[in-house]
Protein 1
Amino acid sequence: MYDLKALYEATSVQNAVELRLEHPEAQIIAGGSDVLVQMREGKRAGKELISIYGLDELRGVSIDESGNIRIGSLTSFSHITRDPIIQKYINVLGEAVDMVGGPQIRNIGTIGGNTCNGVTSADSASTLHAWEAIVELTGKNGVRRLPIKDFYIKAGQVDIRVEDGEIQTAILIPKASYENTFGHYIKYAMRNAMDIATLGCSVNVRLSKDKKTIERARIAYGVAGPVPMRAPHAEAVANGQALSLDLIDRFGLAVLDDINPRDSWRASKAFRQHIAVEMAKRCLFTSIQLAGGEL
Amino acid sequence: MAQYKLIRCTINGEPVERMIDVRASLTDMLRNDFHLTSVKKGCEVGECGACNVLIDGEAFNSCIYLAAWADGKSIRTLESLTGPNGELSDIQQAFLDEAAIQCGFCTPGFLMTAVEILETKKLYTRDELRKLLSGHLCRCTGYENILNAVEKTMKRRLGVPAE
């Protein structure tokens, strides 16, 4: 038995918004692999829950009228990994969420829950930052869309307006972001399964037509600071430059101007800085290869 | 105030209906209301996999799944694998033959994930199987015999010769 005060099950997005306005103290629960565990630990004990898990309209991946990839917030990690649209246009996201927890967690865990949690270690978050995802929120005033970097406010806190009854309804990957773009994610953790990243790094590149120059490189980290973050100095080093191994080295070192990891029981700051450089280099190398570039 | 919800679902092929306390996990419901004690209470935080069951064909840790969500779902537990007179299924027999069981606590959870894997009818490599089974903890066997049992059953079902 869970120590929950009341359970309100939303029957539609509109109903979820109404429930949220009616019960502003209540916690939204999607798949529950974080919320229920925290409730068991006593952190959220005695709370009311608004369950949106039954809203099938928030499941699935599609391409909208503007060509953006639309991922319903309740789409589970395993369904993202297996989705043909994801595999074709942004396979790295499917690979990244295939490193969350273990198989059963990937069947229940949702991309909406992973991001609404606001934790820096979320395996989806660095890739979503690196691909400039847009978060869609639905509330009493309709739909609000904001870039994922603005969605994260601080550790454990995201920009969801409870007073407007907002819930996250989708994550969008803009067409300009995914076209001709190839990426790679590395999760550094102590175990291969059921572990939280010591550091996560996601890189993607778009090469020139002749595959000799990097048109656009983007890189983002999880656990390199209190929230997932891009590394703009490193991107500036690579953008518009001819492919070379030396460029990859300089790209890797430049991330140290951007990231701000901390000492924690999982790893020291110095160790995280060390692997951040190495992971940036390896991710860029693999991304260039996936894009058809030769090194 | 206790809060209740009427659940209609299918458990091991049987349509059932039950009034449940909304605070119950699916583990609570399956064990207490339906006496399906193959569903083990282990860590109760979704880490060990002992409570794993199939819901609409996918593996879920029932300890972190609200019983209220079971409405309209088809749930399968280990009890569904045996025949009418208690005959073992091929995957259960393989666990015995390969000594993939010692204390047995993790076994029902492993078996239901194995069923999910086998029902995809795909041929996986040893490394892929290792990843697919990684949501279960076993403190006795060292995992190798469990991998052997699943791999051999997979190959037997697909008609692929064992090495």
Protein 2
Amino acid sequence: MGRHRSGPVRLAALAVLAGLALAGCGGGDIESAPTGGGGGEECGEFDIAINPWVGYEASAHVVGYVASSRLGCDVEYKNVKEEVAWQGMGNDEIDVVIENWGHDDLKKKYIEDQGIAQEAGSTGNVGIIGWYVPPWMAEEYPDITDWKNLNKYADMFQTSESGDKGQLLDGDPSFVTNDEALVKNLDLNYEVVYAGSEAALIQAFRQAEANKEPLIGYFYEPQWFMAEVPLVKVDLPPYKPGCDADPEKVACDYPEYDLDKIVATDFAKSGSPAYDLVKNFQWTNDDQNVVAKYIAADGMDPEEAAEKWVEANQDKVDAWLK
Amino acid sequence: MSVLDRPRVEEPVPEVGAPPRLKRGWAVGATIFVWLGGWALLRGTATLELGGAELTGFHQWLNGVRDDFDAARDTSFFFQYVIGGISTAIDTVVTFFQELLSQPAFPRPVPEIGWLGVVALLTWLAYALAAWRSALLVFVSLLLFGSLGYWTDSIDLLIVTAVAVAICVVIGLPTGIWMARSKRATAALTPVLDLMQTMPAFAYLAPLALFFGIGPASAVVTTLIYALPPLVRITAHGIRTVAPTTLEASRSLGTTDVQALRKVQLPMAKRTIIVGVNQCMMAALSMATIAALINGPGLGQPVAQALQSLDIGSAFVSGIAIVIMAIMLDRTTTAASQRAEKEARAGRAGGRRRWVVLGAGGAVALVLVYVSRTYLWAAEFPERPDLGTPLSDGVTQLTDWLVTTLENVTNSLKDLVTYALINPLESLLADTPWWLMGLVILAFAYLLGGWRPTAISAVCLLVILGTGLWNETMKTLTTTLVATLIVILSALVVGVWMGRNHRADTAIRPLLDALQTIPPFVYLVPALALFSTSRFTAIVAAVAYGVPIATKLIADGIRGVSPTSVEAARAAGTTAWQMISKVQLPMARAAVVLASNQGLLYVLSMVVIGGLVGGGGLGYLVVAGFSQAQLFGKGLAAGIAITALGIMLDRIAQYAAARYGRA
């Protein structure tokens, strides 16, 4: 019986584990607590993608909080970047992208061609992307806000990372950006350097304003930080429809984005009350900035921040639930 | 960890007709002269630089392949039923354990078994598989996870790791056995395993998520790809090294092949195989944070989130939790393997006392499981004592203070290294015309290792050219070389000190052991806090990852220098400096060369992770390819270029080590 020599211990362990697994299924005594206010309709699981910027987080958690507290949904937040979130609509893993910035290529692929996703209307937020400088610079060098003068100031923005070129600070590599192409096509003597995240961008702008250091970088609105340091936007060649069609040849400013909601087709057809909530959800840039500030500047847990705003804005929330 | 831990079986033989030393010195000088001259005259021409948004035909083709797969996933039988089946199976298993142990089992507000039951069960399991010491370690570690505030994430990570390792064993053991018994299988599988270990996970993360979905299944598959090779290799190695005489003896007794495998080879290789499982487990943990980017459950999530929001305190605390888990799993599997060996020798498991303790412990565990299903306090990990918040606040305050106080020091250090070392070297490598640079690399490969690495390098350079990312590859080579240089210098200083001073050795060695168990992602946290994002930051993280192994190798080498030589030198009245430079280091040359080789490979495996904190070059492209749909092909091409660069440097270093380490 050589092969059972060291077996009994393991065998016993297995037996106990198996027994436990069975016992586990036998039903426990902790009452199944209802998760929310117990709405009438069946909601079930509601998967919200979380893209990596605070404004997005604010919208997602407000919708999620309302869905779980009013509709009794089992809300799950999934931390993924934009592209991955769109992909996930194909296999029922993501129900909604609550704040979408343009992404015409993805719309074509997943809405028109594959039909796994569809649009669910505007969030009411207006999105602006551009190059910004701290306010002290706009005051000291008034003509810096015209892109034609940027080469004149390039030396000022040199860092050890950009070498003999000026540094243009970008955010997370996943953000919507044409900056590498813009620098090349506008013949700017700049190099794009990635800060890595929204938080790193904010920290850099905050320091630049406080220490009166030169900095130019990618930034966007709606953005709570603008209330703390009102960054000034640099004018790029004006946007015309279609001028950004080829990502390699872009030489114009970013369009003004009507931020919209994207839902999985299966989710839209499921009859879930959460879908109606998503469709009706609309608020302003100021609303989002309030919640974003709770999270980023005041260090609140996103769910608490959402709760605080919802409690204070019952009328708006009620309109989404009609 | 990539290509490193594999036992190096074939030792390359030094080539016949290798240039003698003096001639070689001249040749190196001449190569550098030509290089510098070419750089001075032709700088900036034919650098093959590709703008950030520009794509080559190859990149677009890769994008097209991805789109075809994307479109096929709803219609193809293979994707729907085979891939879909696998991912549903994995998801189901992971979700089952999550609802049992870590996540609320809807409609219950808590898991089926609460924290108290989980602690009791796992502690008991550690005792059953290893010994009371391991049980104590597991007990304390689990309580720490909870009081650091990461109970759910920790148990999630444990589940994902366990499932990945279990599949690893199921696939890896037979594959390893097959490789040990068939030369042809070895020849066919070795390049595949090489590729699995060197191809950065980031490069295939997005397509994986496309097929296996966002969540546990993708996380497990990603982990599997990276963690399987060490297990296969070590298993094959273990079985191969069972003494041929033993095998002969059993065969002469008339055992069949299968019997020989089951009764002789497997039991004798058991210890080695458990080492393989241990390596596999460590590899799985180091993938945790990367898997978090496709929403893989576990401790990687809070680390990734905290890095994103620059919350150094939280990143530190969740990083510590990963380290604790690494130490817990590492020590427990090691103890289990020792126990297995002891039992195999003694022939009987434990004594009567052990059985009594096991039985009683099992009963207690069962009672606690019942309690944890019944009472809320035993189901949800208590919020107090809360070690996480004060620790995180403390670390945040400390880093804030450090960063403001040391801002000038850290910035000038960063600028000094960047301006004095990184930028000039980058210009030398990346601004030299590609054909000249390629020739220079080949010349070095020949001078260091002979013809064979030169041929391999030529193939790798062609692959890199084919990816269209020559310029970015040279930038990555720059940071890799700078980091390796710093690793070797620090390892020399600390290693020599440890080798000469016993007390220093006893003080530092446990620290190095602990550092080696830390998954590479964790190194980003302090580096990012001190230096924000830059190439230097990525270098610092890579150095921190490479120094422990290199230091230990050098210390062991110095220690291994024969005492009689040292005595003789001392009698001749040498100074300490002479002793180090004339006696100990030359005699420990093999160790120094090996340390440099390993240091280089560890640094190289940090390239992509460094891309997350400003590393630039190929690492950044891989990260960007994961993030932007139109850059996917470019990112994948960058992954291929990293693999080619890694194989090239590995082979040059290996052949050079064989030649110089021996002399």
Protein 3
Amino acid sequence: MMKTVARVLSPLLILCLVLGSLPVAAAPSPATGLISTQEALSQDQVSADRERISEILARQEVQDQLVAQGVDPAEVEARVAALSDAEVRQMADQLEQLPAGASVIGVLFAVFVILLVTDILGLTNAFPFTR
Amino acid sequence: MRFPLPAKRRGQVPGHRSRLNARLAGVVLLMLGLSLLSGCASAPRLASPEAMGVPPRVQLEGVPFHAQREYQCGPASLAMVLNASGVDATVDELIPQVFLPHREGSVQPEMLATLRRQGRVPFVLDGRFESLLEELAAGHPVVVMQNLSLPAWPMWHYAVAIGYDLDDRLMTLHSGEEPERLESFRRFDATWARSERWAVVALPPGELPASTGPVRSLQAIADFERAQGPLAALPAWEALTRRWPEAAMGWFALGNARHGGGDPRGAAEAFRRATEADPQLAVAWLNLGLTLEGLDAPERAREAFERAAALPGPWQARAEEALDRR
């Protein structure tokens, strides 16, 4: 699904960005847009355009992933919009590996015993009753 | 660190004696493993309160407690810091913004994104224990991520640090279902270290953390601006340039926010300050030129473009282009 979307979207995006970045030779434009702070912070202008393409795709991908994780589709766009570029890339690349704060643990009895000992030693805090 | 599981093959060893030996070996292994573990998790070594510049004891009042329900320590922690900072958000409102139903938890990037959506700038701290104390001393409650269990069987957890006591070496946290829980520095640091000491303060635009430097603060505000727009970020940039007037990128960002907020004169002034702070910052000369062009000051715009065009780097082409089009 993502693959087909990417295949259709990529050339279109590339075209748009290339056209957009061409100097407007015919009509001298009035004061053009400033260089944004985010753009200036990302420094490397050569790769900036390529990054913009991959970022738009990454945002779409993160939206799909969130829906797959059971998030209400009506919420997904606003959630992704508030992520920074770096966070979007992190989410797109490794959402599965990111630790999710939940404070639950599913463990075997052997692990239970080990954690009990480490709790008592003050290395962990898995069971509130050990303090 | 992986924990050695002792005596796993015990059942395969025939004979009572060798089984006993295996059990002994298992116990030895267990003790060895534990001693190794305690070796890596010693209590944090801290400078004296005077050297750190923090009071020996801090307890923040006015951080309301929200008990977590099921797995929702993420939204609960966010509600606590948001309420403390004057945002009227409830846990129920925050759950659909940050909780991942199938993961039964909340991930760090979305914790930050949710704070932005609520109009607060999230600053991720630099992971030093001292920074955590400095923020608390400055009156900022801190969301921390802990792994309450061992790395092999993680139990990720968000809590809100609201105080500390250097004499008794205790942290105070609103955590899980327990308000004002006391945790020894040692246990707290052992569980916090497993998240690479992830910690966040959420501040209204215009306030800055006590412990972060200009670069980290700049990135945090730029990320906030991307989500909330230049007008919302304007007070944050003003605060940044007041605190670090020598940071050229701060002036540059202030110029962009002013321009985006419809104040080109203020923007030109900020870009000029950026070029004073760092005459090599080509992008500031470039934006100064573009802004002056819009203000009908073609001569001064040309000067700025010439300065930008003289500096090698990614913005040179744009500056030359601006000169050519005149």
